[in-house]
């Protein structure tokens, strides 16, 4: 999922920790939603929703209609502002590489979104169909079920899913720490090389004098 250039959403800023919009940004989003809501129903029907997502993202028609069905969990045939807000936060999280942080912070809402049949578990097929929303690679899926399906029923219940999101954040933090450690080591090595070079020049200049 990618945001198209020149989209209004490039002007919004998602909080990196909580993965939510600021009050000011949320108000701007409300105004945007009302512009889309031409029938003034405080909701978007599938046609309005389709054109909106088609305009701002590179999602296929099938994916857009799947997202509509996921958000329209009560089958009313329309998307209200709360669902719209959640979708925009997911898009923004994707755009800012905060998908795993979003899953962790909003694990219950994400779990309910992925549980397409409302059976209170996420099956491999449900994860496979929705993985594009959170940038989960196909190859990761079988490993996720292998590692986190503790009960062995080939489904993730909420506790198992929550453990998966904690693991993702933990892995992300370890990677960030490792990256920082490498950057510091590189900077130290460069500083040492510069110092050695300066000492060498000093030595060369003093030997010329004699
Ligand atoms: Ca399910
Ligand atoms: Ca399980």
Automatic annotation (TrEMBL):
Domain EF-hand as annotated: residue spans: 59-94, 136-171
Any one GO CC term of the record: cytoplasm
InterPro entries per UniProt: EF-hand-dom_pair, EF_hand_dom, EFCAB9
Record key words, sorted: Coiled coil
Superkingdom per UniProt: Eukaryota
Any GO molecular function: calcium ion binding
SUPFAM superfamilies for the chain: EF-hand
Coiled-coil region list: 170-197
Keyword flag Iron-sulfur: no
An annotated GO BP: flagellated sperm motility
Name the UniProt record assigns to this protein: EF-hand calcium-binding domain-containing protein 9
Native source species: Python bivittatus (Burmese python)
Organism placement in taxonomy: Eukaryota, Metazoa, Chordata, Craniata, Vertebrata
